[in-house]
Specification:
The complex is a heterodimer. Chain A is of the alpha/beta class. Helix content of chain A is about 20%, strand content about 25%. Chain B is elongated.
């Protein structure tokens, strides 16, 4: 399985993602934002970081970069694109996902482990996972997911919520909402479920001795789903 | 000519920075503040002398990049 990770100026989770993808069997290529064409890929990842220093709005500049034309065409042809953290922000700014990510509710940069709950497994990312609650890491200042009432209705009607913030038992109450996101939303899909954007970082949870193994479960399952 | 654009958050969108500024102003003794909303201001020098056309160009910029229409409104002002 081939994957591509796009590096924007200011990306800083691109190499972590590269390590994670290679560890679980992907043949990964790093792609520069100024390139025109994506290499042949089964999965494209927009990594976390601070592309263009978060100028104007997080992800707004990166969403207009040259490679994004190719990414948008890849999505139209049914290709899988996953955006993590700043990658999620780039996906909403490019219009590939609905809504926007605002500053965290209490204006603080949050860096901690959180639990997220997967509700819908009818998609290539989560299909065949044998548990619902995962421990992932978050590190962001603008992760407060917001959308209009009409957009929220559409997202819920189409089962587009990918992951919710929750506690270790999977309870999705406001108490377990780190950043003020509408309905505890931590990640969403597009209608077709081939684009996934989420704030939590599975690539930071791939080593038992450093962090945890829930990211390993996610990546192992993902590559098996794509085979 | 120079065209200016003001980007403001829509009414329903929470503006935590505006709220904190409001609280600070109150703490400093400005007691008559009802609400503070923070926005962005751009001055764009456009290579176009026709005001309608120049404003049209900046409007296009607002729609495509300067504002995110999910959460923001824009207002265009001809300055020079």
């Amino acid at each position: 399985m081939k994957s591509s990770v796009i590096t924007f100026p200011g990306s800083n989770c691109d190499r972590d993602m590269d390590v994670a993808l290679n560890k679980f069997g992907f043949k990964n290529k790093m792609v520069w934002h100024n390139d025109h064409e994506l290499p042949k890929s089964d999965l494209v990842v927009l990594p976390g970081g601070f592309s263009y220093g978060d100028y104007l709005r997080c992800g707004s500049m990166a969403s207009k970069s040259k490679i994004m034309h190719s990414v948008i065409n890849f999505v139209k042809s049914g290709g899988l694109v996953m955006g993590i953290c700043n990658g999620f922000q780039i996906l909403v700014e490019s219009g590939l996902l609905p809504g926007v990510l605002l500053r965290n509710r209490y204006l603080e940069f949050i860096c901690k482990n959180v639990y997220v709950k997967i509700d819908n497994k009818q998609n290539p990312y989560f299909k065949n996972l044998d548990k619902e609650v995962f421990e992932f890491h978050i590190a962001h200042n603008e992760g407060n997911y917001f959308c209009t009432k009409d957009q929220l209705k559409e997202i819920e009607d189409n089962n587009q919520v990918a992951v919710y913030y929750c506690n270790d038992e999977g309870k999705t109450e406001d108490l377990f909402n780190p950043n003020g996101s509408i309905k505890n939303i931590a990640g969403i899909f597009n209608k077709e479920k081939n684009v996934l954007g989420m704030m939590p970082h599975p690539e930071r949870m791939i080593d038992q001795s450093l962090s945890g193994e829930d990211g390993s479960l996610f990546f192992k399952n993902l590559i098996n789903n794509l085979k | 000519m120079i065209v200016s654009a003001i980007i403001t958050l829509k009414k329903d969108v929470l503006d935590p920075q505006g709220k904190v500024i409001h609280q600070t102003l109150e703490g400093m003794g400005f007691k008559d503040v009802n609400e503070v909303r923070q926005g962005k201001y751009f001055e764009i020098d456009v290579n176009e002398n026709d005001p309608t056309k120049a404003k049209g160009i900046v409007e296009d910029m607002c729609k495509k990049l300067l504002a995110n229409l999910v959460i923001e409104n824009y207002k265009i002002i001809e300055t020079q």
